[in-house]
Queue: 4 jobs
Job 1
Amino acid sequence: MTNTPAANHRSHVEQDQFLTILSREEALARFEAALFPRDLPGEIRPLADALGCALAGDVVAPIDVPPFDRSNVDGFAVRSADLTSAGEAAPVRLMLNDETIACGIAPTRPVLSGTTTAIATGGPVPRGADAIVMVEHTQPAGDRAIEIRRAASPGQSVSYAGSDIARGEVLLRAGTVIGSREIGMCAACGISEVRVARRLRVAVLSTGDELVQPGEALRPAAIYDSNGAIVTAAVSENGGDAMFLGAVADDEKALESAMRAALAICDMLVLSGGTSKGAGDVSHRIIARLGKPGIIAHGVALKPGKPLCLAVCDGKPVIILPGFPTSAMFTFHDMIVPVLRRMAGLPPRADAKVDAKVPVRIASELGRTEFVMVSLVEGADGLIAYPTGKGSGAITSFAQADGFLKIDALADQMPAGREVEVTLFTPHVRVPDLVIVGSHCTGLDRVTAPLARAGLTVRSIAVGSLGGLAAAKRGECDFAPIHLFDDKTETYNTPYLSDGLELVPGWRRMQGIVFRKGDARFEGLSAEDAVRAALADPACIMVNRNQGAGTRILIDRLLKGARPDGYWNQPRSHNAVAAAVAQHRADWGMTIAPVAHASGLGFIPHAEEHYDFALVTARKQRPAVQAFFDALSSEEVRAALTEAGFRPA
Ligand code: AMP
Ligand code: MG
């Protein structure tokens, strides 16, 4: 089936966008074919405002630099022929001319044979002189003469006119991106303005009824507009002139007028959200009315980023990024930046790549090119690339990754241990000094605070206790924070250690029942009684935790096999449990005391959980590891942990 723009009738577009999914390469090729070749509009910019712009044409040097023969030292301008016989035992005496050539002073007297003129570094060499003798190699001989005891070669300590930059020479080539060095070269030639490719004006619009701008109060069911800020900044990072126009509700009329207004003032329009076929998703329908040829690709076999929509309206690219932040950032980086740079006359972005090993199997969808965001850590033999697996709805998946790896459309997985190429988001990776892989706890931030102040970089990768243990056994981290209860021995953590690992005690976290303050069903009860009360009320809804969580074991023991309403709602974090109760989606659950208190919820203490560290013995002596455990036992950190509601061991 073809998907030429002409074949994209309105009815077809409205029927099913995703019937015509293109491969990533095909989508990009069609998008570029619809946009290029095109004229690059140029503009003259003052040198100071040209930073980051690409030159529209060659810059030719209008003058010689230096503009005259120039002395490189403080000393005396001489005729070298006068000094041929000079030596330690045979000083040559030269009479001083009656002037001193300081910087910026043009000489007036020639240097005749037997004479010399005092000259400063940067001074123009006077007529007749062909060398400069350093002041250190001369002696005064009365107040009108000097003595020199060594010969001088012609040209000694002289920079000739044009030796740095020659008039007529191509100083900078078209397409060069102007940085401080290029600005310096132009300034040295007296160039005050340059012709550059005009900065691309890129309008950015967010769409969605749920969006609130940062700085405003969050209303129920709303979220902050992160895509707007991210895309705007990413446009600037890639040399564009970004204009953020705010968020528009999912209202066809309002959105259409916002898009038309944006297109009137920009060269490129980037929207985010509303690309799916959801009831409120209208932007792609509007595009068809904005100009020819319209939609080029809607639906790309790309993960993250399948709902990406690429269009060209009367020569201007109109892009709808997926709403999910990681999808939006990734597709912008992968598909939009190359086009943006090319339209702005900038050279393609130079992607830096490193080789790394994948520590775990990564499942992948067959038929879609999949990009997996990864964090890099130093392993025993080379870099390890950890998937930052929070999914495309999470902003941190992209923002905290060092780069990404690619899984082919035809592969359904990447096996553990595979050597891969990782494309970096920034040209340099700084491998962290301390790597923590395991269960996350807000208490960790209290311990790492002094390390950060000391300039140590810490990376904490949250994969849960069991994932952390596995990483520690493979030597991919310094230690794994764990809180694993062993039913048989009724103890925490120690039974889970294996050879090469040792336990360092961390802190205790009080686990308990959370409920909304004032809920008479729970107020004043013990945890056992509270659960009994909850089970007695069929209208009461609980929120559970995921299988494998330490908290889940405690919940199951209290429930004694009961499966009340809400049991299958199993979020993966303490905070999610508190949010569910605070927002009335559930009436009770189990979380740790600091989280319950931070959410203003009622709390019934139940059992103290041990949050400890499985330390890789082989890494014990590393300075950052020492620094961590020093901090852990310091008074300052113990006080901070206590203040946050933890009980240091
Ligand atoms: P949509 O493509 O509009 O259906 O959005 C998909 C998901 O991305 C929804 O959870 C949206 O709330 C979210 N989303 C859409 N736009 C933004 C934005 N500008 N910032 C953060 N999240 C967004
Ligand atoms: Mg939306």
Job 2
Amino acid sequence: MRKNVVAGNWKMNTTLQEGVKLATEVNEALKNVDAKCDVVICVPFTHLASVNAVIDPAKLGLGAENCADHVKGAYTGEISAPMVASTGATYVILGHSERRQYYGETSETLKEKVNLALANNLTPIFCIGEVLEQRENGSYLEVVKTQIEEALFDLSAEDFSKLILAYEPVWAIGTGKTATDDQAQEMHAFIRGVIAEKYGKEVADNTSILYGGSCKPSNAKALFAKPDVDGGLIGGAALEAESFMGIVTAF
Ligand code: PGA
């Protein structure tokens, strides 16, 4: 059966020293709880190796927030999937709406990133989600379906089974405006149906689909109680160990 996962997305926050301190705090806190979910922190590239050195990989997974769409070579400033893997990280967020919006990521480039992540034994946390206008004009289900089809449906069933999906309505990210648990459930069930149509019910039932967008300790319980919501991708509330743990323990 699919796993429950709570993953932090630190975005472009914390210096190296602050990041190591935060990771240490989360790692310590996890020693005292019996977490009912896999817990992951996705941190800036510069922090990966140092954070890896202070966490217990049996309790806390580590991921990057992006990787390049090429394996190596003359791509100044880019960080490849093998580089990420060489730090000890085992996850990578791909297709976050901020990357799509500000850095021009398309389904075509994301396809390459997913392939390279998988080839390097990184678990992609693949993000999808509609903008406010699409929510309001009723096209949101179709938009998300297209994002999944375009970037992921060339994968074999075996490879698709290695992914984690994160539904993040763009209008809910960092805005304090969370999707209601019913809105999240509607979309998550729809996504599972789209996967089932392509890969069959077993693959769909085994895919973890996380919710992201202003998830916090006060709303995590209701969201995670929904049958198709398998955890969260957490931005702002992942920047303090206490609030992050408040979400981890919502399961
Ligand atoms: P937020 O971000 O929790 O700050 O809304 C979530 C995300 O963008 O992954």
Job 3
Amino acid sequence: MNKTDQLKELLSPETIEARTRELGQQISRDYENRPLVLIGILKGAFIFMADLARYIVSPLQIDFVRLISYGSRMESSGQVSITKDIELDIMGKHIIVVEDIVDTGYTLKYLKEVLTLHEPASVRICCLIDKKERRAVPVDVDYVGFDIARGFLVGYGLDFDERYRNLPGIYHLTPGYEPQGFAPSDR
Ligand code: IMP
Ligand code: MG
């Protein structure tokens, strides 16, 4: 840990687990026995996706995309591109995109448009955290773990400059320094 970063717990591992179980149960009820493809957005969604998948009882396939967006370390500029595409054929299939956090909305707007070109039967979005304060484009999020008003969060997959993804809970971060310059950042 950067010695001047400050972390304050927002969601405990137990709170996250309980909500993830509820989301999995809700998705299982909504889809029943219809086959489903979960598409996780790397890297941030890797832990949430792994936990959520184990609470879904509908028949399931798993895939991942990796997106990059240009901006500062803490804010997206709106320019998004794919660096790793899906590998499954999703034509005619029911899709749920699994995301760690929705912030400006640019990432999910872009991904939904790209996935629609593959002609899936449906596309829904499940995100662990919906942070509406900086929403720049409207996004319909179908399954939301937690609504969080503001702040920069780390842990449970979420990073700041690639750090803190391994923390089991979610923390509010006050960085010890202001990130400088512009660089591509993993979602
Ligand atoms: P957006 O909705 O396109 O602005 O971007 C969402 C992505 O930005 C997420 O997938 C995260 O990787 C990253 N992001 C947004 N807010 C946070 C945060 O509070 N902590 C860590 N990553 C964040
Ligand atoms: Mg990130």
Job 4
Amino acid sequence: MTSSYTVQPAQQIAGRVRVPGDKSISHRALMLGAIADGDTAINGFLAGEDCLATLSALRAMGVTIAQDEASTVRVRGAGLRGLQAPQQVLDMGNSGTAMRLFAGLLAGQSFDSQLTGDSSLCQRPMNRVAEPLRLMGAEIDTRDGKPPLQVRGARSLHGIDYRLPVASAQVKSAVLLAGLYADGDTRVVEPAVTRDHTERMLKQFGVRLRRDAGAVILAGGQRLTASSVDVPGDLSSAAFFLLAASVGGAGELQIEHVGLNPTRTGVLRILELMGADLQIEECRKDAEPAGRITVRPAELQGIRVPPELVPLAIDEFPVLFVAAALAQGETQISGAAELRHKESDRIAVMAAGLRALGVQVDERPDGAVIRGGTLQRGVVDSGGDHRVAMAFAAGAVAAAGPVTIRNTANVATSFPGFAGLAREVDIALEEHDHGN
Ligand code: S3P
């Protein structure tokens, strides 16, 4: 099935909403719950296709998981050594997080497994995760560095001291998960701070973990104790609404109970540097901080995006590209080459989409220079990338005429119900299904 959106310019963006649960936290809650001792209750779980791929894979390895409601999940922990050999290839769909975290988790099991994914995922680099896992003693085959992955079990893993060549929370997490099955200490050093949901949740599940000068250190063999996880709304999903309400001309939008983990809030800091009017109230200081964001319209200005904020906003660049196109003056984005390895090559796909709407974009290997002004009416293709589709839909509220976004089916990977929620806040979005 393919589908598209058509969005009309908006008079105002207003309302009070919650966005679906955080994708990164939902994957981790399932995985840690599955290898814990006892039952883990997950509230606010994201029932998007990506996390459902993780859920199905764990069920295929014998884990009992009840989904009482879409966002309420109970996982019966199988214990550290309780996963069973899957009878089929594990399909991760579109999800890089599922594939890379499972690579780490499966490297320490006693059975063989195979991981595959859709055409986008099968183009994404996997050596970044296979290499450190091999250093730990794992045997992992790739197809020229890409999926499918064959993970051979019954290896005895040993801890390593590993400096990540790229800032990647997925790779850090894979090494830490494998570290649970390794002899001795596993130490991971990251070149820049990346999201720390794995570290926070491991601690919540009773794992002793030390942080020391940019390093995370974990002793192998530790058992996890089940916990209850309250997943806040996904700031990456909220970001589309932050953009729409900033450029929407009038109205006030409140986003409730959204994750405010400081390793994820780069988008807030960058939008504020651009002049966005955001009021941020932290209401919960838990394993994962959360709160309310109130957004009012503002005149955005072009900026040079500080490179140190890039890893803290890595999933929000589609939104930031569109914000830059609607800002006064030039925005320079650099140090963001990782964007070329996401669900699509986000630098190329965003540049093509913005150009289709009349924006001047100078594409660079590690970013872009965007000349802000207006978005013209037109048609863009998301390249099958959920976040690209939603970023254009959000920015279209401030375009000179209707914008059609093609290839939107993958929005369901991270944001089921996006079109309905958009309409709730006065975004005039029509969805069209085109069959196969
Ligand atoms: C994620 C980490 C990020 C991010 C992805 C989710 C995670 O990827 O882009 O959407 O849940 O760990 P990298 O760690 O590869 O940068």
